[in-house]
Design a protein that fits this description.
Blueprint (H helix, E strand, L loop, with lengths): L1 H69 L11 H14 L4 E5 L4 E4 L3 E4 L4 H7 L4 E2 L3 E2 L6 E11 L2 E11 H8 L9 E6 L4 E3 L14 H4 L1 E2 L4 H10 L4 E8 L2 E9 L5 E8 H55 L10 H13 L8 E8 L2 H8 L1 H17 L6 E6 L2 E7 L3 H18 L7 E7 L7 H13 L8 E4 L2 H22 L3 E10 L6 E12 L2 E3 L5 H7 L2 H21 L6 E5 L10 H12 L6 E6 H4 L3 H13 L3 E7 L5 H7 L4 E4 L10 H16 L3 E4 L5 H9 L4 E2 L8 E2 H15 L1
Parallel strand pairs: 17-18, 20-22, 22-23, 23-24, 24-25, 25-26, 26-27
Antiparallel strand pairs: 1-2, 1-7, 2-3, 4-6, 5-6, 6-7, 8-9, 8-13, 10-11, 11-12, 12-13, 14-16, 14-17, 15-16, 19-20, 19-27, 19-28, 20-21
Helix pairs in contact: 1-7, 9-10, 10-11, 15-16
C-alpha cells in the first residue's frame, strides 16, 4: 500500500509541475501571438482563402463529375429510337441536380427531354468537350429559356472515340447558392476568373461590385506586385497560387488567388484590410480566452484528481479483470474461447510425454448451417449452437477441452486408447445431438487427427483435422474421417506448388490453350474461343485441378489471369497484322481480381500496349462470384462496358439469384452450365434451358452451352435456338498453333 501511496504522491507532484509549466507556456504563447499576429495576417488569410478555393473548386468539380458519371448511359445513344432517347434523357434529368440534361451529337445537334431539338455547334463548351475535355461554361444565355445559366459538359466516349457530348444546365443564380462558401464571417468575396483576369463568376456577397466580363486587373491598382508578374504566375501552372494587395475606390484590400485545376479558372478571394485585422484581433481574443479557460480547467482538474484517482484505479482494475475474462470466453455459448482452447491444449502438450499417444484433435462443423439460420432465424440458430456446446461440454472427461472456433465450427481435444474409442465418442455425440436437439436435424462432419508429436504447433494440428473433415464435407449423413498420409502428401504437394509457381511463371511453363466456340446455325463455323491455362513441367502437363484451386486460395490466380489475358492479346495482335478475320476470345477472371481497384484499367492498358481493340475480348465471370458483392460487380461490369469489352456469365443457372443479376448487370453472353445437359431427355431440364434462352433473347443477350459431347445435345440446343456451343464433340482445348490451323487453315495455305 505504501508503494502505491508513494506513486500517487509522485504522480500528483508531476501533474502539478506539468500544470504550472502549461500555464506559464500559455502566457508566453499569448504574448508571442500578440507580437507576431500582424506579420501572420497574410499567412492566415492565405490558408483560409486556399481552403475556400478548394471548397468551391470541389463543389464545381463534383457537379462536373456527376455529368461524367452519366455519360455511360449515352454510349450508343444515337442507335436508340426517338422515344427511347427521350426516355433516357428524361430519366437522367430527373436523377441529376441539373434542371436540364442535353445530348449533343458530333454535328452539334442537341436534344433536350424538356425542350426538344436545337443546334449548339457554336457553343464553346461543346467544342471543348468534343475534343475530349470536360469543362464548365462561363455565364451564358440559355438557348431554350433565355435565362442566365452555366453549362457543365463532358464527352461521351466509346472505345476511345468521342461520339457525343452530355451537358448539364444549371441556373446561374441557383449555382451561386450551391458553391457559396461563407468566408471570414461573410466579409470576403470569392471571384472566379479566367487566366486572363476576366471575371467569370461573381459571388452573392460582392464587396467590389464588379460584373462578369470585366478584367479585374483593369479596375484595381496592385500595390505590392505588378499586374504582369501576377498574371505570369497565374498562367504558369494549373496549380499556381499566391497573394497580393491592391487599392480600389480609396480602400485597401488583400487578395489571395489559387488555380482550381480545370477550365483554366482561378479563384480570387478578396477582403478589406481592415476586416482581416479585425478578424485577427478576434483570433487573439479567442486564444486568450481559451488559454484562461484551459488554465482554470487544469487547476480544477489538479484539485479533484486525488479524489478521483482511487475510484478510477478501482474501475480500471475491474475493467482489466473483465477484459481478461472475456478474452477467454466465447460470448455466444459462454464456453471457452478459441484463444483459451489454444492455451489449455498447449499446457497439456507441454506436460505430455511424446510417446504417450493418448490425445486426438477433432474438427467438427454442421453441414449447411446457413439453411438452419434461413429456416429458423439467427436467434434460433444461436440457441442450437448453445445446445451443441453444452452437449460437447457434458461429454468431456478430465484433461479434455473444446471451443467454438467460429460460426458452427468446433474443435475438441479428447483422450483415447484406440480407434474404437474415438468412433464411440463420435457416435455417442451424434446420437445425443439427434435426440436432444429437436428443432432441426443436424448433419455433422468430424475430422480426426491422432496426435503423435506434442511439439507440433496446435494450429497445425487443427489444420490437419480440418483437412480430414473437408474430405467428407457435404455428405447427407453425419460422418467422420481420419487424417492419413495421403492428406499429408496433399499438403506437401500444395506447398511444393506454392514454392515453384513464381519460377514457373517466369520460366514460361504456363501455356495458353484455346477451345473453339461454334455457331449452332452453322456447325462448321468457329466464331471464337475460350482461353484456358495449362502448366507443363518437365515435359508433363499438370492438370488444372491440381493447381488452380491452390492459386485461388493463395491469390496467385490474379497473376495467372493477367498472364493469360496478355498472351491472348499478343496473339490477337499477330492475327490483326496478318489481316486475318478477327474473332472474340473469352478469358476467365477469378473473384480476387474484382477486389483490385485498377483491375479493368489494367486490362485496358494491356490492350493499349498491343494496340488491340477491346471488342475482341470477352471477360468471363462465374455466376457464383456475382453474388458475393453485387455492388462491386456492377461497378466492374459498367467499367468493362465503358472500355468496350464484352462480358459473359459462366455457369449460369447454378446460383440462386440469376434473374436479379440480369436485372442489374450489362451482360452480353450467358454461358449455360453443362449440368443441365447431363440428360438430354430430361424434360424439366430442357424446359429450363428453353426459358433461359428465351429470356436472354428478350434481353438482347446471346447464349452458349459448354460441355457438349453428343450429337443429341447439339440437336437439342439447335432446336431450342441456342446461339453457340463448345465441348469435346466439336473440339478439345488445343495449343494456339493448332487453333490457328483449324480456324485460318485456308488463309495460311493461300499465303
Amino acid at each position: 500500500m505504501g508503494g502505491i501511496f508513494n506513486s500517487k504522491v509522485k504522480y500528483t507532484l508531476f501533474l502539478g509541475i506539468v500544470a504550472v509549466a502549461i500555464i506559464i507556456a500559455c502566457f508566453f504563447y499569448i504574448q508571442s501571438v500578440s507580437r507576431a499576429l500582424e506579420e501572420d495576417n497574410l499567412i492566415l488569410f492565405d490558408e483560409i482563402a486556399t481552403e475556400t478555393a478548394n471548397s468551391i473548386g470541389s463543389k464545381l468539380g463534383e457537379l462536373l463529375t456527376s455529368v461524367r458519371n452519366y455519360t455511360y448511359r449515352f454510349v450508343g445513344f444515337e442507335n436508340l429510337s426517338e422515344e427511347e432517347q427521350m426516355a433516357v434523357l428524361a430519366e437522367t434529368t430527373n436523377a441529376s441536380v441539373f434542371h436540364d440534361m442535353i445530348y449533343i451529337d458530333t454535328e452539334g445537334v442537341a436534344l433536350s427531354a424538356s425542350f426538344g431539338e436545337t443546334f449548339l455547334s457554336r457553343r464553346d463548351y461543346f467544342s471543348i468537350a468534343s475534343d475530349g475535355m470536360s469543362n464548365i461554361s462561363t455565364i451564358i444565355v440559355d438557348h431554350f429559356t433565355s435565362s442566365r445559366v452555366n453549362v457543365f459538359a463532358a464527352p461521351v466516349i466509346s472505345m476511345g472515340q468521342v461520339e457525343g457530348v452530355l451537358a448539364g444546365v444549371h441556373d446561374t443564380e441557383d449555382l451561386k447558392d450551391v458553391i457559396y462558401t461563407e468566408t471570414f464571417g461573410g466579409k470576403a468575396s470569392c471571384y472566379i476568373l479566367n487566366f486572363d483576369g476576366t471575371i467569370v463568376f461573381r459571388p452573392r456577397i460582392d464587396i467590389l461590385e464588379l460584373d462578369p466580363g470585366i478584367s479585374l486587373f483593369e479596375v484595381i491598382s496592385p500595390t505590392s506586385d505588378t499586374e504582369q508578374s501576377i498574371m505570369a504566375d497565374i498562367n504558369s501552372s494549373q496549380n499556381s497560387q499566391g497573394n497580393f494587395s491592391f487599392e480600389f475606390e480609396e480602400e485597401s484590400y488583400i487578395a489571395s488567388y489559387k488555380a482550381i485545376g480545370f477550365n483554366e479558372w482561378v479563384i480570387v478571394t478578396v477582403i478589406r484590410s481592415s476586416d482581416i485585422l479585425a478578424f485577427s484581433n478576434n483570433v487573439l481574443t479567442m486564444t486568450t480566452t481559451f488559454a484562461m479557460i484551459f488554465m482554470l480547467i487544469v487547476i480544477a482538474g489538479w484539485l479533484i484528481w486525488g479524489v478521483k484517482y482511487w475510484i478510477s484505479r478501482r474501475k480500471h482494475i475491474k475493467a482489466v479483470a473483465e477484459r481478461d475474462n472475456l478474452k477467454y470466453v466465447d460470448l455466444l455459448t459462454g464456453g471457452p474461447s478459441f484463444e483459451k482452447f489454444l492455451f489449455d491444449v498447449k499446457e497439456v502438450f507441454d506436460n505430455t510425454p511424446d510417446d504417450s499417444g493418448i490425445y486426438a484433435m477433432i474438427s467438427m462443423d454442421i453441414n449447411k448451417f446457413r439453411t438452419v439460420n434461413d429456416h429458423l432465424g439467427y436467434e434460433e440458430g444461436g440457441k442450437i449452437l448453445n445446445k451443441l456446446a453444452s452437449l460437447i461440454q457434458a461429454g468431456l472427461m478430465e484433461g479434455e477441452f473444446y471451443t467454438r472456433r467460429s460460426a458452427d465450427s468446433f474443435c475438441i481435444l479428447i483422450k483415447y486408447v484406440n480407434d474404437v474409442d474415438i468412433f464411440g465418442r463420435i457416435e455417442t455425440f451424434i446420437n445425443d445431438t439427434y435426440y436432444q436437439i429437436e428443432e432441426y436435424k443436424l448433419i455433422l462432419s468430424f475430422g480426426v487427427y491422432k496426435i503423435d508429436d506434442f511439439s507440433m504447433d496446435v494450429r497445425s494440428i487443427i489444420d490437419r483435422a480440418d483437412l480430414a473433415r473437408k474430405t467428407i464435407k457435404g455428405s447427407n449423413e453425419s460422418a467422420s474421417a481420419f487424417f492419413d498420409d495421403n492428406m499429408l502428401i496433399k499438403i506437401r504437394e500444395e506447398k511444393r506448388i506454392e514454392n515453384i509457381m513464381e519460377y514457373a511463371l517466369e520460366s514460361n511453363e504456363f501455356k495458353v490453350y484455346l477451345q473453339p466456340k461454334y455457331s449452332l446455325n452453322d456447325h462448321s463455323k468457329v466464331i471464337g474461343a475460350e482461353a484456358l491455362v495449362r502448366w507443363f513441367r518437365d515435359g508433363k502437363m499438370i492438370p488444372p485441378g491440381g493447381f488452380i484451386p491452390i492459386f485461388e486460395k493463395n491469390g496467385f490466380i490474379t497473376k495467372i489471369d493477367k498472364f493469360v489475358f496478355e498472351e491472348v492479346c499478343k496473339q490477337q495482335k499477330l492475327w490483326m497484322n496478318r489481316k486475318f478475320e478477327m474473332r472474340t476470345i473469352s478469358v476467365n477472371m477469378s473473384r480476387m481480381n474484382l477486389q483490385e481497384p485498377n483491375f479493368v484499367r489494367d486490362l485496358y492498358e494491356i490492350c493499349n500496349k498491343y494496340n488491340v481493340p477491346t471488342k475482341y475480348f470477352e471477360i468471363e465471370i462465374t455466376e457464383s462470384v456475382a453474388f458475393e458483392n453485387l455492388d462491386i460487380l456492377t461497378r466492374v461490369f459498367n467499367e468493362l462496358k465503358n472500355y468496350g469489352f464484352h462480358i459473359s456469365i459462366d455457369d449460369f443457372g447454378t446460383g440462386y439469384s440469376s434473374l436479379n443479376m440480369l436485372k442489374n448487370l450489362p451482360v452480353d453472353v450467358l454461358k449455360i452450365d453443362r449440368s443441365f445437359l447431363s440428360d438430354a431427355k430430361n424434360e424439366r431440364a430442357n424446359n429450363i434451358i428453353s426459358h433461359v434462352i428465351s429470356l436472354a433473347l428478350s434481353l438482347h443477350m446471346k447464349t452458349i452451352c459448354e460441355g457438349i459431347e453428343t450429337i443429341e445435345q447439339v440437336d437439342l440446343l439447335t432446336e431450342l435456338k441456342c446461339d453457340m456451343a463448345q465441348g469435346f464433340y466439336f473440339a478439345r482445348p488445343m495449343p494456339i498453333e493448332e487453333y490457328e490451323k483449324k480456324v485460318y487453315g485456308e488463309v495460311l495455305a493461300m499465303t
